[in-house]
Amino acid sequence: MSESPLPAAHRLAVEALDALCAAGGPGAGDDELVSVLTLCEGLARRLDRLVVSAVAALSRRGVFAERGYPSTAAALGDLLGYERAEARRRVVAAEQVCPRVGLDGAELPPRLAATAAVFAEGRTTLRHVEVIAKILATPAAGRLTPRVWAGAEHDLADKATIYTPGELAGYGSRLVEMLDQDGPEPDDEPPAPVNELHLARHRDGSGGTLTGRFDDAALFDAIATVIDAKAAPLTGDDDRSTPQRQAEALAEVCGYVLDHADGVPDCGGHRPHLNVLVRLEDLEARARSAVLDFGGSLTPPELRMLACDAAVVPIVLGGAGQPLDVGRSTRTIPDGLRRAVAARDGGCAFPGCGRTPSWCQVHHILPWERGGETKRDNLVMVCRVHHRMVHHSGWVVRLRDGLPEFIPPKWIDPDQAPRRRPLPHPSAAT
Q1: Which long-range contacts (CB under 8 A, 24 or more apart) does 330-334 make?
Q2: pTM above 0.90, yes or no
Q3: How many helices (H) does the chain have, and how many strands (E)?
Q4: Can you give the pLDDT at residue 321?
Q5: How many other β-carbons are positioned within 10 Å of the β-carbon of residue 243?
Q6: By C-alpha distance, which of 275, 276, 271 is closest to 287?
Q7: Segment Disordered: which positions (predicted)?
Q8: How many CB atoms lie within 10 A of CB 131?
Q9: Cα separation of 268 and 274, whole Å?
Q10: Exposure of 91 by Cβ count < 10 A (0-12 exposed, 13-18 middle, 19+ buried)?
Q11: Residue 196 class from Cβ within 10 Å (0-12 exposed, 13-18 middle, 19+ buried)?
Q12: Residue ranges per domain, the chain?
């Protein structure tokens, strides 16, 4: 059996890159450095084509699904350290510019044949492929005849060699709009109402932004009536703006519901509540600061105000982020344990995941049926997706220095170096 050519190919690639680095070193002239840039971009595009081809082949074979991953993008994130958008970009390219296999096993051309050609020649980038795929997947593009659609794809592929991705996106939108002259067919039925609310946390932990739309008049009036009733000026000297009074009214109503409404559904196995995470040194210094479950930081005045509310559960953290004391609103031990694990892990502890505690489950590191105890040192918080992966894909979870870390299977990392999510608490060890 012949040996894999990969080691020799890797050695030659490293030697070539070393030579390129030397050519572009401190002594290189201006023209040489410009040439280094163009050579590196050409090599990067060739490597992108190789990656996309490998992703397509692995997806067709179902390799990642067999190893417990719900999607190819999720597997690429763990294997190569991609952000979700980067992984998805390569998956889209694999689906669009690589040959397909029919139900009878016959090879079919790529969905975006013209784009595949310029991508294979290195005349365009992954981002261009993503833009073309997105444009041609719009409802307007779907209304084009196959011949017109193919012509538009050929035109976009040609323009991708001279336009930036942003320019191509604008051009493609205008092109499809022009070709779709008839627009959508008239529909006697009224459009379905849109009722949606988007919550986005600020990256700096200072709070977040809510944006919403309610086409259902009854839903909107229910919300508007409650906010209007609570947003009235408190006194004649209340100089808060109307938007500020409405924002604070919404928060006050939500807080009241959490405190008093029995109909609020459970979140992750327990009733919704507000956890305030306080570092031990901050508590000793008269509670200077604290952190909330969703990552927001509290100022001293805000913390002191919350500390007056008996419905708040204070959680005191040690220097490495481990809970030292967990208050309980009831005497039920499972709820207290869950609070302790949530305080330590800050949500799903799997590296790269951002699921908050309310979307997570608690996993026994040593299974309960094998003698594992239901105690904090044998529990870790994971979302449903990563809970399944821990059970089925070869990842191993353990606690080190009282904090969770995950060991990937060898096919992800031959060295099986432990991985740990950055901890949410300011004083936590890295």
Answers
A1: 334/269, 334/374
A2: no
A3: 16, 13
A4: 53
A5: 9
A6: 276
A7: 410-430
A8: 26
A9: 14
A10: buried
A11: exposed
A12: 14-179, 199-260, 275-407
